């Protein structure tokens, strides 16, 4: 069928009697062509047909050489309005005949900021290649004449001396040197970095010469510039200048009343600007709602109207539609929309419109007529039709959709309601409306059913249904979801269902919900919340374990997700947990109740989705070993694999199982996870009572009989004989275990040999493949070793090292050592461990013993500490206490003059490594009372000892700034002593030269320093130090000055910095002038 829906587009003709719209359009078109009036307003209500009038007026204007520009304010409401206005004005002016298009475009681009100028300054560096090329070119040009002359001499003169050929060769090199430099340059590579990436580019010959330049660049680009009033003014003035004076344009600013007040004010100011600048070339027509625009321009509506009247002196008003006029228009629209026209139907609907016109409409407008006809048309498509349905649809739309009234208020009985009780609607008008419907329909029930059909968009059969209570209760009790589904489609079911919730038992409701979840998941989801609410009220599961109810809840949860925080679930799970947490009360229950506890908890946890292991960080070892260990498949929801027993509880569980002869796997994940080497609780178990279960297996093993399984082989680890007695001779009798489980066999044998210290070879081990399974198995056995020392010690056995190392790595990674002798670790164990694993891994393992640094570093035999351990402390962030203890130890070591002197002369590699560690951590040592040690050492120590290398460079970084300053002052005093052997001063500079700076501000006698210059040929470090010092030689006495001048001038290569100073440059020039004068005098005498 054809769906004739009206859009918001303006009509092409005036469909209302009186032709008010057409008359207004005619007048506007006439005035718009008058040069004396530049702006015309059209005031009217929202939807009153202003756009229609404007379109009709434009049609009448067209053909009179007037071009129309339409600016829709609503379209550009959330954008850059001024920018859009400039673009639209440009498009309109562009259509004007004889317009200067180039200048017009330029004006637009300038206003929008698309054209801009900028200066770009390019700075270049003059490279060594450029300097060399220019110099070589100058030399080449100067040498060319001589080269040509001398070259011709080679062919014309015989018996030339050898020096002549050398001269020609040098001239050849000078002439062609620019070519050579150019070839070297273009064959080189330019390396540049762009965006962090290095790029290699082959240079061209033209790149050798560069210059500084300043470029002015003009570009035209599209940018997002903020366009303001000045830009709009600039664009408009430019547009007007580019347009012939005879050109006429009309700008229509439409939908001004559909935008926000802020935007209205902005566009209003733009309109004022346009009218002032454009003059008679551009006329403006503004359709608007005076009420809305006035409120936007000013909080005082009357003041806003004054603003409007000032700016728009000529304003037309769209008249309201008279009753007869809009009714005829409504009929015309109705005929166009609906195929069947009923005059009485249209009359009744018009009556309803006039009676219930929404409050936000002051009068019926063309837009309102289109809107309500569209809504009646669309709503009529959503329910089965019946007689006079469109009348009820129009009433429903007016009341519920336009006036937003509650649907129930439409079908209430107003005959007995008094007017004074009116709170939402006018009772009298509703009574009149109901009488109108009673006249049209046969009875009140008919039109009320019709309204229900319209509101719920369904058939009237669903309106009434009262006889479904008993069938509904039976469908719940006997779990018949199909009957429930049939009943649920009847009208009134919801109320009956709520009543059935209270009359049925909660057990029946849960079982019914289970059957419904497997039949119709979506319906089960709808009723689930209500049933679970009843379960919370009735405290479901509060009694003994009822398997079918718990299973039903699990099945429901599988199809319809339950809330894990439901009260009855949380309460029951909490009670079961508390039962497990109290071992004595738990074992007071009968055996069936104990088993049911875990079965029920396993089911309920699948609903609550909580981790069982999170609530039992210290579960009883007895309960765990009897009911949970190895039951991962039976109780899949209890995440047994994540339960970690404390070591005491682990030992309790093992003892409980041994006493009660409960078979268990010693290497199960939970047991291994809780095990740690050298744990006191476990050591007590090993050294304590020998249980019958263990003794029985040992007797069998030592008698040469085969054990039943690897479970029995593992139990042997729980006796001290496995650590202390050599049982290797009994292993060969376990041929069946070797055949079925070779990895288990060899892992047990190797671990046993490690514990008893047997270094003999293992028969058949070369055939063993080093698999991940073997590594894990050996790791499990090693956890039952006496201590870490015996395992690390076994690394010395080359045959076993490849097999032990991976499992030992597992022990370190997983922190499986409870107690550790730190003194032994850093002296004995660290080196072998460092050979098989990374430093980071060892340090991460060892960080738990950081608090034992005092006992480890404080003991004697510091030289025996592993040097790599001290070195590796520099590269890790862990073990802060060890680092602090080492710093304290070094401070104590260097706390006296005697100890410092001894350290300077000779220090162990470990102590030097400790100093490097303190230095790398930015630490310093207090030397405030010992700053004279160094000056005393250089002045008093035997000269032969001073000539040897010492450890002072290692100590210097440990001095803080104040102490170092004091040390340097005392050493500088030594350098200035004339009575001191110069060699002692030289050794001071050797060790402290990097820090010493000569200061002669208070010195008049510099003899000691001057004397040092004479030793510079023998000591390169001395010459380098003297070269970088600052000397005011002009203030020295003549003897010292002469010594320094003579030595520096004669050994200038040793003092490249000093020789370039102004003082020595003057001496060089003076010497050259004296030499030249002497040569001149000798030439004169000759």
From TrEMBL:
Q: InterPro entries, from UniProt?
A: KAP_P-loop (IPR011646), P-loop_NTPase (IPR027417)
> What's the short name of a Pfam family annotated to this entry?
KAP_NTPase
Segments forming domain KAP NTPase: 22-380
Q: What name is this protein filed under?
A: P-loop NTPase fold protein
């Amino acid at each position: 069928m054809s769906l004739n829906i009206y859009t918001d587009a303006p009509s092409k003709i005036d469909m209302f009697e009186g032709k008010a719209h057409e008359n207004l359009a005619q007048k506007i078109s006439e005035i718009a062509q008058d040069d004396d009036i530049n702006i015309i307003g059209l005031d009217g209500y929202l939807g009153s047909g202003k756009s229609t009038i404007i379109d009709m007026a434009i049609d009448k204007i067209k053909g009179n050489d007037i071009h129309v520009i339409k600016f829709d304010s609503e379209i550009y409401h959330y954008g850059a309005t001024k920018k859009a206005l400039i673009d639209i004005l440009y498009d309109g002016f562009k259509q004007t005949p004889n317009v200067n298009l180039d200048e017009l475009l330029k004006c637009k681009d300038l206003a929008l900021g698309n054209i801009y100028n900028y200066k770009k300054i390019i700075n270049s560096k003059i490279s060594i290649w450029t300097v060399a090329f220019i110099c070589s070119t100058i030399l080449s040009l100067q040498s060319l004449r001589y080269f040509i002359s001398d070259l011709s001499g080679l062919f014309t003169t015989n018996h030339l001396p050898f020096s002549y050929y050398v001269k020609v060769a040098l001239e050849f090199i000078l002439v062609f040197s620019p070519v050579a430099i150019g070839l070297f340059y273009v064959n080189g590579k330019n390396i540049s970095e762009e965006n962090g990436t290095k790029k290699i580019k082959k240079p061209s010959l033209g790149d050798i010469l560069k210059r500084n330049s300043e470029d002015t660049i003009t570009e035209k680009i599209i940018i997002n510039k903020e366009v303001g009033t000045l830009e709009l003014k600039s664009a408009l003035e430019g547009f007007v200048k580019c347009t012939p004076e005879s050109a006429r344009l009309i700008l229509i600013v439409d939908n001004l009343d559909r935008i926000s007040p802020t935007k209205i004010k902005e566009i209003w100011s733009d309109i004022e600007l346009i009218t002032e600048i454009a003059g008679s070339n551009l006329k403006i027509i503004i359709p608007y709602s005076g009420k809305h625009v006035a409120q936007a321009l000013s909080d005082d509506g009357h003041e806003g109207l004054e603003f409007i009247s000032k700016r728009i002196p000529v304003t037309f008003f769209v008249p309201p539609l008279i009753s007869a006029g809009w009714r005829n228009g409504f009929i015309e629209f109705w005929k166009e929309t609906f195929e069947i026209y009923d005059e009485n139907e249209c009359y009744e609907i018009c009556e309803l419109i006039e009676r219930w016109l929404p409050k936000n409409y002051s009068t019926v407008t063309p837009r309102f007529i289109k809107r309500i006809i569209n809504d009646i048309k669309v709503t009529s498509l959503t329910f089965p039709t019946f007689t006079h349905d469109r009348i009820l649809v129009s009433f429903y739309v007016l009341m519920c959709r336009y006036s937003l009234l509650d649907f129930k208020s439409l079908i209430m009985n107003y005959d007995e309601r008094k007017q004074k009780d009116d709170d939402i609607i006018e009772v009298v008008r509703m009574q009149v409306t109901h009488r109108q419907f009673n006249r049209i329909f046969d009875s009140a029930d008919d039109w009320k059913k019709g309204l229900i059909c319209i509101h719920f968009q369904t058939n009237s059969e669903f309106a009434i249904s009262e006889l479904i209570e008993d069938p509904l209760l039976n469908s719940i009790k006997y779990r018949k979801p199909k009957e429930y589904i049939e009943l649920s489609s009847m009208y009134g079911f919801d109320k009956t269902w709520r009543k059935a919730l209270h009359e049925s038992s909660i057990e029946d409701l849960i079982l019914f919900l289970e059957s419904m979840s497997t039949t119709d998941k979506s319906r089960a989801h709808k009723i689930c919340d209500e049933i679970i609410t009843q379960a919370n009220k009735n405290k479901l599961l509060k009694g003994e374990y009822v398997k079918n109810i718990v299973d039903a809840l699990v099945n429901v949860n599988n199809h319809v997700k339950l809330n894990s925080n439901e009260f009855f679930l949380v309460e029951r799970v909490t009670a079961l947990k508390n039962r497990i947490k109290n071992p004595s009360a738990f074992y007071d229950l009968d055996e069936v109740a104990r088993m049911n506890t875990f079965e029920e908890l396993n089911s309920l946890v699948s609903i609550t989705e909580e981790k069982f292991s999170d609530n039992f960080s210290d579960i009883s070892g007895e309960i765990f070993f009897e009911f949970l260990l190895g039951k991962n498949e039976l109780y899949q929801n209890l995440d047994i694999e994540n339960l970690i027993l404390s070591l005491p509880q682990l030992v309790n569980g093992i003892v409980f199982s041994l006493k009660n002869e409960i078979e268990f796997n010693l290497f199960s994940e939970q047991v291994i996870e809780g095990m740690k080497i050298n744990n006191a609780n476990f050591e007590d178990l090993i050294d304590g009572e020998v249980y019958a279960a263990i003794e029985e297996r040992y007797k069998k093993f030592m008698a040469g009989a085969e054990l039943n399984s690897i479970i029995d082989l593992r139990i042997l680890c729980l006796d001290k004989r496995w650590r202390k007695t050599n049982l290797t001779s009994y292993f060969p009798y376990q041929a069946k275990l070797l055949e079925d489980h070779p990895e288990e066999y060899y892992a047990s044998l190797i671990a046993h040999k490690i514990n008893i210290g047997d270094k003999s070879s293992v028969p058949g081990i070369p055939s063993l493949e080093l698999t991940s399974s073997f590594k894990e198995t050996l790791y499990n056995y090693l956890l039952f070793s006496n201590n870490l020392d015996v395992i690390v010690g076994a690394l010395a056995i080359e045959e076993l090292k490849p097999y032990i190392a991976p499992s030992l790595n597992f022990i370190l990674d997983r922190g499986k050592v409870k107690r550790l002798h730190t003194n032994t670790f850093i002296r004995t164990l660290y080196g072998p461990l460092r050979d098989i694993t990374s430093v980071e891994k060892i340090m991460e393992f060892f960080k738990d013993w950081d608090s034992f640094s005092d006992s480890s570093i404080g003991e004697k035999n510091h030289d025996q500490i592993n040097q790599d351990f001290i070195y590796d402390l520099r590269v890790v962030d862990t073990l802060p206490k060890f680092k602090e203890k080492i710093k304290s130890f070094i401070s104590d070591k260097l706390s006296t003059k005697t100890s410092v002197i001894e350290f300077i002369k000779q220090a162990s590699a470990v102590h030097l490594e400790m100093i490097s560690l303190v230095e790398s951590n930015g630490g310093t040592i207090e030397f405030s009372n010992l700053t004279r040690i160094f000056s005393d050492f250089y002045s008093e120590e035997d000269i032969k000892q001073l000539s040897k290398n010492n450890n002072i460079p290692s100590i210097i970084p440990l001095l803080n700034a104040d102490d170092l300053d004091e040390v340097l002052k005392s050493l500088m005093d030594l350098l200035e002593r004339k009575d001191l052997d110069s060699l002692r001063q030289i050794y001071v500079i050797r060790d402290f030269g990097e820090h010493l700076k000569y200061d002669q501000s208070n010195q008049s006698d510099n003899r000691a320093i001057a004397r040092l210059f004479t030793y510079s040929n023998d000591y390169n470090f001395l010459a380098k130090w003297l070269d970088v010092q600052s000397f005011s030689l002009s203030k020295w006495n003549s003897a010292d000055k002469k010594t320094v001048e003579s030595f520096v001038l004669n050994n200038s290569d040793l003092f490249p910095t000093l020789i370039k100073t102004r003082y020595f440059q003057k001496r060089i020039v003076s010497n050259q002038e004296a030499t030249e004068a002497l040569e001149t005098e000798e030439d004169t005498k000759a």
